[in-house]
Amino acid sequence: MAKLESKVPSGPLADKWRKHKADIKLVNPANKRKYDIIVVGAGLAGSSSAATLAELGYKVKSFVFHDSPRRAHSIAAQGGINAAKNYQNDGDSVYRLFYDTIKGGDYRSREANVHRLAEVSVNIIDQCAAQGVPFAREYGGLLANRSFGGAQVSRTFYARGQTGQQLLLGAYSALSRMVGAGAVELHTNSEMLDLVIVNGHAKGIIVRNLLTGAIERHAADAVILATGGYGNVYNLSTYARQSNATAIWRAYKRGACLANPCYTQIHPTCIPVSGDYQSKLTLMSESLRNDGRIWVPKKKEDRLKEPNAISEGDRDYYLERMYPAFGNLCPRDIASRAAKRVCDEGRGVGESGLGVYLDFSDAIRRLGENGVRERYGNLFDIYHEITAESAYQVPMRIYPAIHYTMGGLWVDYNLMSNVPGLFVLGEANFSDHGANRLGASALMQGLADGYFVIPYTIGDYLAGQKPGSRPSPDAPEFKAAEESILGVTKRLLSTKGREPVSHFHKRLGKLMWEHCGMARTASGLRQALKELPQLREEFWATVNVPGSGDTLNQSLEKAGRVADFIELGELLCLDALTREESCGGHFREEHQYPDGECKRDDENFGHVAAWEFQGEGKAPLLNKEPLNYETVKMSLRNYK
Amino acid sequence: MSLAGNLFHSSIGRKFLMALTGLILVGFVVGHLVGNLQIFQDPDHINGYAAFLHQMGPLLWVARIVLLISVGIHIWAATALALENKQARTGNGPATAKHWIQATLSSRFVRWTGYVVLAFVIYHLAQFTLGVAGSAQFKENLPRYVMAADYRVAGFPVIKAGAEVLDVHSMVILGFQNPIVSVFYIIAVGLLSFHLLHGIDSFFQTMGWRSAKWSGALRKLTLVFCLAYFLGNLAIPGSVLTGMKGLREGFRAPSTSRTARR
Amino acid sequence: MVASSTSKSSLSVTLRVWRQAGPNQPGKFVDYAAKDLNPDMSFLEMLDVVNDDITTKGEEPIAFAHDCREGICGTCSCTINGKPHGPGRGIATCQLYMRSFHDGDLIVVEPFRARSFPVIKDLITDRSAFDKIMQAGGFITVRTGAAPDANSIPVPKHDADLAMDAAACIGCGACVAACRNASAMLFVSAKVSQLGLFPQGQPERDKRVLAMVSTMDAMGFGNCTNQYECSAACPKTISHDFIARMNRDYLKASFRSVFKPVSNSTGGGAA
Description:
Chain B has ten helices and four strands. By secondary structure, chain B is mainly alpha-helical.
């Protein structure tokens, strides 16, 4: 049984972080250079932490499977980043951002972590602006804001539709500076394949050099995983094709608990699937919901009609109807489920019937076509490239798609997992978004963790580790881990079956989407739990991985990742089946109010479900961390 | 790195040198053309002008050396950059034919027009400055011209009436009466104008003075300039070839050959 | 292959793909037939399908770089019919759709070619030279936590917008591949311009441009001959105006370095 000690400091919520910073141990400047820290991943959390830790004087080794840190998928975030700056004078505050995030997460996140997130959000904007991130500005030269789902204030900072890109490039430039200064050793094209644990502490990783196939051992005093989410378990998602769960999954298998895997976010505004061959779903930023109105025809028989030919009276602006207070800006899980509901009623548009309209004609009337172009031009261009349709003339067709995973490795208040020395940042951990993440909060969390949390909290752990005490990469634990990796690689390469890896990924994705997608049932989940082990067996028996292990081999990379996805899919379904309630992104059809809203069960499920690996073929163990709400009262989310 | 290091070793530094020397050379060819156009006035003008330039003595040599260094640096920088450019492309498999997207024709042929212009400059110097080619008609071998009136620069009479000067006027006309020489000259100045079409645009880009806001206007201005330059140059051999411009009254070809004169 | 899910007619093309087993190994073009493709399929999805076919035959699939598939990560990098990222303006390879081709077309697919981008395998090249340039000076030195309030430094909207135009660069390297001289000027100038347009970027402005250009030259990229093929091939249509701006910055910095007084004392607290 894992020990899940949240280490949330005592005292009033608003003082916890300040108090904690004053209480935790420090490493003196001369000693910092004696500690090696491994950072896996170079997205917002990875780059920002690697850069900041190096600035502090630690010796940092940064690992990224991409050819450059700048390619990490944080780059694709479009809309913006929240911060409680209250520059708009519209009543925002740290407390309000905290409260909106807790409420948006359907009361399934850890209060103290979320409050800290809201506190440091203001520093993030300062830091990024100083780095030269080209945030949108007003004519006076000060920063502009837009509003986002789940909030009634304008607190989202943005850089056109490329906020994630700009923030990542800011963090990448900070990282580049430290690489140039020799303070960070950068390992590109290096994929982490195992976590090495020595005497119960995370002390290193095994990586595969993707260019040469060489398996390398790297030892350190602490290991940070910032490897992102596991949404590609669904195959079709808004994730990058290479985004994978291998790092966190292998850490899970080495004893780190995986928390709330069933909390997956489905983004309401993506371009619908068009065919079997499809590899990727493209997101249309949530910011579009600021000015776009979502509707479907009132009558089923209108669903294939030319949208502009459907009269105003025959349109059902269902979000505005169902949630008059938030309207088109209600949180993502709610908007997604509403879309599913109207499509299930047979009113979905487009050939597949899986689509709703996002209509800008009102906005064009109000702002003019140029006004709309100024705000969303690049998004309209993306839409045009993909669909060959102009959203200035006809409404966009959108449908929900997997976008983010709130679940992840369990961490305490210090962002350390239950394995001492293993820290987990950003989307890879579970802590801040509960059961649903609000728009523009992922960027905030990644950078908060990397710039402003880990630099303090890692010292608390390292202060207890004697400088120079880290094991050598020749230690038996490293050797054993390397051998197990070589064994897996050999097995994948020698199967020489008939099916390419993509075949299994597609099947896995379909199975997960059908049984563990937007709406889940006990019987569907049981069915998935029956089929997934079969799929896993079939994979290992019939997968075809051509080529060899000692060169660049993309099939081999994919095979390892899909093998992990299949296993993770099983845990995800198990978690979804075990959580007998609906909350945020986890919707169990058995648990809903008559109007279709989530019916939470705070008494029995007001906890974090942290799953612990018990060995191959054995059922994982469920550990529970109760969620103690000291300040906020858990209540029914209401966006009406 | 030092300033000289930056200018002579970096890519941008050498481009700056090309731009700077290019500007000097453009200044020269424009001045040269304006001077030459005096051929359309009475012979006093061009002959007086030539005599005036010769009279400058050391200053003329300073100008010549500056021009020579400019040409040298221009060619050196172009060659050094081009060699690097070629190297930057090779060693990575055979690329299929380059698919041009928006590069202008003049930019794509700038190296070749440069070669032709260089060849022309050498011939031109040989013909009109050194007298190696077509030497029977070289100014030194023609009878001296007697100035009918003062040649004035900025109001000062620099060449007095009655002075005996070299007969550049007749040399040019005799030279261009040869159609082969004229056609080569016309082609060469045409290519030089074409070369400048890219060169002038590039000058502004390299100096950092070009932007989308006025690059269209710059393009047009450059075009007009190059066209005017070409037409100006075309006018001289053109008018000679078509017979519009003939030898001056009273010109007497030397009855004897060069050897006889010596 | 893939049946069309829409009513639009399908198309078949022949791919002529550069295959190269590894760095320093000879490469060659190999033809593959891609049949009955849905025009709504992306170019990379077409390659996925072709690759599955090749894999099923027991051969090694075509290695190609890709990741986000929405034109922002800058990983994908194919030269298609002689043009980086293929036909179309302002798109990355992953944003190219088969509807841009005709039935029966021959499509030549190559890696981004440049000496500074050595081929790793098939269509994948090593673009780490870009990272090296960034490490030389593509940043504003600001320690985490040391930043003043974001609104304490107003930035004229016009400058911020222009900086954003430059910052849109995805670091794909199409500018290098499109340039006859394999010059990296557009990439470098975009970063130099972005940071140079901000008040925050002024203290290091000269140092930055000198260091980045010097590293760019050392990496073996060619020189700009002002043909502007780079901006025409750029998936983010970044303007070559930024090259002019960098030229100016570089020259100013070079000349300024001659006259700028330098303090005799060293250190002074800058750790």
